[in-house]
Design the sequence.
């Protein structure tokens, strides 16, 4: 014969405490109290809302690095949470698109022809957090901000690296469900990738260093809406050197 | 007790055990099949937020164990079957922790999420967005507007925007959150249902990269 565990009322919780519970930040005793209380309908509803708020913050990139990492671990392990992240992303994309429609037409006419000057951060990653997960080799990372002072061109040294990760920091106004990144040099396309999704406010193109000869490159960014025409968002330039 | 024979059940539960389980769950005063579905959701949630990989399977394992005890004739004296199941779930969780690493390696998880997103093909993403648009269109205009304005977050004025929205609706910010959550759940169910009808499986691998 088995008896049920003793019961008590659900613990008093607020949004922040539930967020801490979900992210594994509570003490074992505190977490166990909420585990028990998940059978309570009111707390169950509150916990699901807390989940929503966390996913909302994750998609909007409003979490600090530690929480973002903790949440990313749970999302990576759960197909359901990944689906929910996509829903939040899609809702934001549709909301942004509807807000932006009148302005977007003007922006498209402007053509996005000005080649953005770049503010660069060059990170040489050897065994650090910038190591690519798929290439298995060393990666040099180049981060291109939207625009700063005219005339500056980012220079990235690729000697000794197997791959390069070129990231474009996206403006919040440039939110699209997906993007195309096209890397050109002297008018010739060197690499192209469709279906990219911004992560952490950035788009990243990874490619083997061997593909790129020394020279100047333009990274063309195009927003791809649901069923709509591609919208050219701009171009960012950089120079590759060995 | 409801027979609820059409309810999806966890793999590995025999007919007799399944009936016993539904009868047990109906002790909470609800239809056994509905109670089963809701309990399975809660268990999956529990395992997911503990960082366990394979949360649906662990939820099934929990229910299988409860069903097995019942089928073996064990008398479980409780009017709170959910609470009992959560007690079993805790053991399942502890065993899972011992059996496997709890988390995806930290340095990979965020990029894994991004790469999983990037690996979706165009057709699937278009289908998902189309489903969402269609589901939004079924909402009353004011509800749709509320949901989209809530998510129209440019990152700079989010709090102000949401407070303004709550003021316009004449409700507190927390009440707005609750209202949006309910609508979002409704839309999510609608999207899932529409996508299920497309009979389309998501791509598991292959980046859509195109090299020149």
Sequence:
């Amino acid at each position: 014969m088995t008896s049920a565990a003793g019961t008590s009322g659900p613990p008093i919780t607020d949004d922040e405490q539930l967020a801490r519970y979900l992210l594994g930040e509570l003490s074992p005793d505190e977490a166990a109290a909420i585990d028990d209380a998940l059978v309570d309908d009111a707390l169950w509803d509150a916990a699901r809302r807390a989940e929503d708020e966390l996913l909302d913050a994750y998609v909007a990139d409003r979490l600090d690095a530690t929480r973002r990492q903790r949440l990313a671990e749970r999302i990576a392990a759960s197909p359901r949470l990944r689906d929910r992240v996509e829903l939040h992303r899609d809702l934001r994309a549709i909301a942004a698109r509807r807000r932006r429609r009148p302005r977007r037409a003007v922006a498209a006419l402007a053509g996005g022809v000005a080649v953005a000057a770049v503010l660069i951060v060059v990170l040489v990653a050897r065994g650090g957090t910038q190591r690519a997960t798929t290439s298995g080799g060393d990666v040099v990372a180049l981060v291109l901000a939207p625009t700063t002072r005219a005339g500056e061109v980012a220079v990235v040294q690729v000697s000794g690296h197997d791959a390069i990760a070129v990231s474009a920091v996206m403006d919040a106004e440039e939110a699209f469900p997906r993007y195309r990144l096209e890397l050109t040099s002297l008018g010739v396309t060197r690499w192209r990738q469709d279906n990219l999704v911004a992560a952490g406010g950035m788009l990243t193109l990874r490619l083997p260093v061997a593909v790129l000869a020394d020279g100047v490159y333009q990274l063309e960014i195009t927003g791809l809406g649901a069923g709509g025409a591609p919208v050219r968002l701009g171009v960012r330039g950089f120079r590759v050197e060995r | 007790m409801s027979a609820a024979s059409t309810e999806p059940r966890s793999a590995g539960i025999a007919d007799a055990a399944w009936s016993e389980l539904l009868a047990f769950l109906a002790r909470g005063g609800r239809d056994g099949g509905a109670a089963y579905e809701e309990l399975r959701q809660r268990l999956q949630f529990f395992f997911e937020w503990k960082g366990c990989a394979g949360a649906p399977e662990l939820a099934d394992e929990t229910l299988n164990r409860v069903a097995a005890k019942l089928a073996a004739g064990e008398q479980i004296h409780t009017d709170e079957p959910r609470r009992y199941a959560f007690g079993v779930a805790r053991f399942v969780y502890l065993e899972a922790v011992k059996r496997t690493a709890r988390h995806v390696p930290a340095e990979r998880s965020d990029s894994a999420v991004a790469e999983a997103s990037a690996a979706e093909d165009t057709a699937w993403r278009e289908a998902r967005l189309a489903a969402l648009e269609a589901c939004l269109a079924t909402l009353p205009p004011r509800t749709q507007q509320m949901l989209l304005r809530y998510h129209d977050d440019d990152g700079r004025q989010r709090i102000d925007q949401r407070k303004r929205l709550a003021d316009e609706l004449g409700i507190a910010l927390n009440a707005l959150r609750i209202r949006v959550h309910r609508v979002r759940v409704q839309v999510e169910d609608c999207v899932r249902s529409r996508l299920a009808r497309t009979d389309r499986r998501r791509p598991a691998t292959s980046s859509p990269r195109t090299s020149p």
